[in-house]
Amino acid sequence: MKKVICSACIALLGWFLTAPVFGQGQGVSLNKIIAKVDNYYVLRSDLEEAYQSYVGQNQTPPQKCQLLESLVVNKMMLAKAEIDSVVVDEKIVDSELDQRMQYMVQQFGSDKNIIEAYGKSLEMLKSELRQQVKDQKVVQKMQQKITTDVKVTPRDVRKFYDAIPRDSLPYMPADVEVGQIVRFAKPTKEQKDVLRQKLLDIKKRVQAGEDFGKLAKETSEDVGSAQNGGDLGFAKRGAMVAPFEGAALKLKPNEMSDVVESDFGLHLIQLLETRGAEYHARHILLRPDYNRLDMTGPTRFLDSLRTLVAADSIKFDKAAHDVSEDKATADAGGLIRDPQSGSSRLAMDGTMEYAMFQMLDTMQVGKISVPLPYRTEDGKSAVRLLYFKSKVAPHTADFKIDFEKLQTIVLSNKKNRAIDEWFRKSVADVYITVDPEFQSCRIFGTTQNSAASVNGSGNE
Q1: Residue 16 and residue 128 in one domain
Q2: Which among 100, 254, 362, 433 is placed 20 to 30 Å from 377, CA to CA?
Q3: Would you call 266 helix, strand, or coil by DSSP?
Q4: Is residue 453 part of a domain?
Q5: What is the pLDDT of residues 287-333, one digit of tens each?
């Protein structure tokens, strides 16, 4: 079988685009440069982190030579992006960085726990992570550029399927279609009043002469912007949620708003300047304690709605479209889709959310669950109904039943080949060296060519 040089590249890219790695507590040996692509380096720690990302997800890691090859391809994409002037919008980087920092706070429980875990200030961690995020976005954009014309037809899928010997067809796990209707728990008036008073007290302190940026660093719960004194940078009209933007645009430069409530919490906003259709603001955000929200209201609402759906007074998909507060699924009638493939069929195995797996395991197809406590990915407390729409039992791969999954495999293979071809055409544009320790890997199937040498030496 012909070797595809980027066979691990797409899978590794998923790790590369999501892993918030800061080199926590690593020794000097892990900082050894094991490959160079122009001015971009691959460290031994990069290779170990890529390997451990598979282990941590209970997946069988590729050979380290394959992982190194993929890391070099990623660095080559960065080098070629620089040559080809491929750039990403800094606002996209900032937005992604804010999400990463918020995710870390949710995982560690507090800013203090993050600082203790990494032994670095949040400012330093954010600075390190920002370059990673920017590089990741550039690699993603380069990959999209390389594979933008890759398409898969039903004929391609049929050809792939027919080429598999019948006794070698994979055994597919059970998969299901599931819908949901989500309602968020709301903070009580008392909780909001406490936060509102805190923000009003902060506003008085600023009016008395204290620095808004310093107070934002100390008090704001928007981790991403707090480290920059609450600064959100320039935003185009329509980019922010309506309550925030409406309040900000009513202000004069350096003026502060009253307390503003949005889906994210309560804000104190200060407008810094306007520039055409853009405005520059900073804010202090306080959020309610999501662990102490009252679940009674959304639970009763969904319980009543469940009775109506069960009596066929309203269809589940219509109810989801009309009242579900999960925007990602509401427009699709509540149907949950696989974030990677976009398919509505979810594998009912260890990759499924555990609480959902447990509930579906006790339900019959066509039934609706009771209201269930639910924690969203961004840490919000909610309640949801699950609708068990359909199930396909474990089976040998079938062209009709598994078409979407087969299509995803074929598309991935074609993208791998496109990146393979791109590399072969582009390798002469960059200079590659790989440490002699990895000489046996025969990176890219060769030990050297006119521009790419794999017999270089690494640096400490």
Answers
A1: yes
A2: 362
A3: strand
A4: no
A5: 887 667 888 899 999 999 999 999 999 999 999 999 999 988 999 99
CA distance linking residue 289 with residue 231, whole number of Å? 24
* Same domain, yes or no: 325 and 178: yes
Q: Rounded distance, CA 100 to CA 224, Å? A: 8
451 in any annotated domain? no
Whether 222 and 207 have beta carbons less than 8 Å apart is answered as no
**φ/ψ (deg, to 5) at 244:** -65, -50
- In which element (H, E) is residue 324 found? none
**Residue at which a domain ends, from 359, 393, 427:** 393
Written as one letter, the residue type at 252 is K
CB 19 within 8 A of CB 53: yes
* Same-domain status, 325 and 388: yes
Q: How many CB atoms lie within 10 A of CB 323?
A: 16
How big is the CA angle at 131 (ends 50 and 11), to the nearest 5 degrees?
Answer: 30
Structural domain including 369 reads: 174-186+293-393
Q: Is residue 455 part of a domain?
A: no
287 and 319 in a single domain? The answer is no
Say if residue 238 is in the same domain as residue 345.
no
Instruction: Name residues whose C-beta falls within 8 Å of residue 420's C-beta, 6 or more positions apart in sequence.
Output: 4, 5, 6
* Cα angle 341, 342, 348; round to 5: 75
Residue 2 included in any domain: no
pLDDT single digits (tens) 91-140: 788 777 877 777 777 677 777 788 888 887 777 887 888 888 888 899 98
Residue 263: partners with Cβ closer than 8 Å, 6 or more residues away: 241
Tallying the residues shown for the chain, one arrives at: 460
Quote the pTM value: 0.59
- The CATH number for 409's domain is 1.10.4030.10
- With b meaning 16 or more CB within 10 Å and e meaning fewer, what string describes 437-455? ebeebebbeeeeeeebebe
Structure tokens, 72: 């070099």
Which of 247, 273, 291 is at the close of a domain?
Answer: 291
Report how many domains make up the chain. 3
User: Is a pLDDT exceeding 60 seen at residue 148?
Assistant: yes
Write the CATH number for 200.
Answer: 3.10.50.40
**Ordered alpha helix ranges (H), 109-188:** 111-118, 122-147, 154-162
* Local structure of 217: helix, strand or coil: helix
Judge if 34 and 137 occupy the same domain. yes
Q: For residue range 83-92, list pLDDT tens digits in order.
A: 888 888 887 8
* pLDDT of 28 over the 70 cut: no
